[in-house]
């Protein structure tokens, strides 16, 4: 019997896939991925995904077919919703059906199926979509990150890859597709219910949801079956890129001598400091945060949160002796809207420029790329654009987190287009969301702090994701990246314990070879391992990361290098 948290490889004719936690991942024909994931979710009134547990799982599995059934129980707070699930796979077909019933009163934004399409081999591909009225139209999966739904009113989908053609049939609800790279996910998501319908909706006891998805794949006559390959290699090209200016976010901790010495070794380009006037303690907070930068001898990347009241902004800014701080850049954030607009910038930019003359000035959003993509600020008076990022807007498991790193390449390239080629800053980059731009309920300040902390910050996952993220940021030409906090549960180390987290070693590696260039590299299995390769003073240095729970051997530079489970290996 398959236990929750465990995974198993399944076959449906020539298709193979991973079954994990009740869902299907990585549906492939040979080595070509057709579907990234099929799953279902209950999303609460704040778009939070309600956790679930699996009970009563029943399986019939052989080497060519399978049938799995189980009950999934979604419970959190007032929410109690339960699913009867059945998945049948055979003859290159998968049929996934769900029948759910509510056992309580609650508000929800979405209940039902989601299907993820992988980006790398689908971007730009043509697709045929049949709509609810029976009409079929031709479209293409977006190459640049689409700000809004590229496909709506979906009943069926049909597209073709190198190894075969695929067909999807959705039943039980209206479906549409969004580009999840807006939130850093490496997928297009076809989901229900369409966003044009009102939300949240009241769900009552005994309300029912019944849906199904049929996937059929027809192999081409030229197709030759290949299973999961055990051969891993990291190849490099002649292309190279400068690394972005790497910084960390300051907090209010007083740094001790041990911490100062460790952080100085990172050779940071800047320290990110927020200035939020709506906090009563804004002056004290600013001084404490800037003190960290001064102790480290690192310039300050200042983020000023303001509204359109230029008189109040000038009055507040005039209360600080800015000449005592080394400010390398200023980003202005609209504290009352999701992204900075023309009226806001017209009001605040003259004030900010008067206090910070001849210092690069940028704007954008403190939220996600979605907000920037849907309302990019006018760039005429700006030197750079800025938005934040994290890998856990939609999913929280290790696999989903690691998948997101490659999306940094896509959002950076799309941001460059929106900014007219001006530098792209991603600030901050965190492991968990810091806030929710689409929340419909207020959270207490204590709860907001709780939801920012992830214990995996202290482990190998954070280090692996950071390594891969820096690789793709650099490949796309990001100018600046401000990562985690300096210390504490959201940082790189615990100074009271004199303990650095594994992610610290990634930044320490970059510090040792600051001024080096990233050599573009290709991982044969980027969901299992990655490599960051630098050229510094005509020598090559690299760090490899094994994301899996098993040892793997990687061929790199004509050498076979074995990595233990979850290992980071530095080649210096």
Automatic annotation (TrEMBL):
InterPro entries: ApnL_M (IPR058787), ApnL_N (IPR058788). It comes from the Bacteria. Pfam families: Apionate_lact_M (PF25838), Apionate_lact_N (PF25837). Residues 7-218 form the D-apionate lactonase N-terminal domain. Residues 248-514 form the D-apionate lactonase TIM barrel domain. This is Uncharacterized protein. It comes from Poritiphilus flavus.
């Amino acid at each position: 019997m398959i236990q929750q948290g465990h995974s198993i490889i399944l076959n449906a004719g020539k298709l193979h896939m991973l079954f994990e936690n009740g869902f299907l991942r990585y549906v492939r024909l040979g080595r070509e991925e057709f579907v990234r994931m099929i799953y279902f979710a209950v999303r609460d009134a704040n778009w939070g995904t309600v956790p679930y547990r699996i009970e009563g799982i029943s399986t019939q599995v052989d080497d060519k077919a399978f049938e799995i059934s189980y009950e999934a129980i979604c419970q959190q707070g007032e929410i109690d919703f339960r699913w009867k699930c059945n998945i049948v796979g055979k003859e290159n077909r998968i049929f996934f059906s769900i029948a759910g019933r509510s056992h309580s009163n609650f508000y929800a934004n979405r209940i039902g199926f989601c299907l993820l399409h992988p980006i790398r081999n689908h971007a730009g591909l043509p697709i045929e979509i049949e709509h609810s009225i029976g009409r079929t139209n031709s479209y293409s999966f977006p190459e640049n990150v689409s700000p809004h739904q590229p496909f709506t009113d979906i009943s069926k989908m049909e597209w073709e890859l190198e190894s075969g053609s695929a067909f999807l049939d959705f039943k039980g609800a209206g479906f549409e597709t969004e580009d999840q790279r807006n939130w850093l996910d490496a997928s297009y998501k076809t989901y229900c219910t369409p966003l044009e319908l009102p939300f949240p909706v009241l769900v009552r006891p005994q309300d029912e949801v019944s849906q199904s998805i049929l996937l059929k794949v027809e192999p081409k006559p030229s197709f030759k079956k290949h299973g999961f390959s055990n051969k891993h290699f990291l190849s490099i090209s002649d292309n190279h890129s400068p690394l972005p200016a790497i910084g960390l976010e300051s907090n209010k901790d007083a740094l001790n001598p041990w911490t100062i010495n460790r952080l100085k070794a990172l050779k940071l380009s800047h320290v990110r400091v927020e200035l939020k006037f709506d906090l009563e303690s804004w002056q004290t907070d600013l001084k404490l945060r800037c003190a960290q930068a001064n102790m480290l001898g690192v310039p300050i990347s200042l983020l000023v949160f303001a509204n359109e009241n230029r008189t109040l902004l000038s009055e507040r800014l005039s209360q600080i002796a800015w000449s005592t701080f080394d400010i390398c850049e200023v980003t202005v954030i609209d504290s009352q809207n999701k992204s900075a607009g023309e009226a806001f910038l017209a009001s605040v930019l003259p004030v900010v420029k008067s206090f910070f003359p001849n210092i690069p000035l940028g704007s954008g959003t403190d939220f996600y790329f979605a907000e920037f993509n849907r309302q990019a600020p006018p760039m005429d008076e700006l030197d750079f654009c800025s938005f934040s990022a994290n890998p856990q807007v939609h999913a929280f498991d290790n696999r989903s987190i690691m998948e997101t790193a490659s999306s940094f390449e896509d959002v950076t390239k799309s941001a460059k287009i929106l900014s007219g080629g001006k530098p792209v800053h991603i600030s901050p980059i965190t492991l968990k969301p810091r806030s929710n731009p689409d929340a419909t309920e207020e959270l207490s300040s204590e709860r907001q702090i709780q939801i920012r902390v992830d214990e995996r910050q202290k482990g190998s996952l954070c280090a692996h994701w950071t390594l891969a993220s820096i690789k793709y940021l650099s490949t796309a030409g990001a100018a600046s990246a401000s990562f985690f906090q300096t210390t504490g549960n959201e940082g790189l180390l615990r100074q009271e314990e004199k303990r650095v987290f594994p992610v610290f070693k990634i930044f320490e590696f970059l510090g040792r070879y600051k001024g080096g260039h990233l050599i573009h590299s290709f991982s044969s299995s980027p969901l299992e391992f990655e490599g960051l390769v630098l050229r510094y003073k005509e020598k090559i240095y690299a760090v490899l990361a094994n994301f899996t729970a098993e040892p793997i051997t990687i061929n790199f530079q004509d050498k076979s290098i074995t990595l233990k489970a979850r290992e980071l290996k530095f080649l210096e």
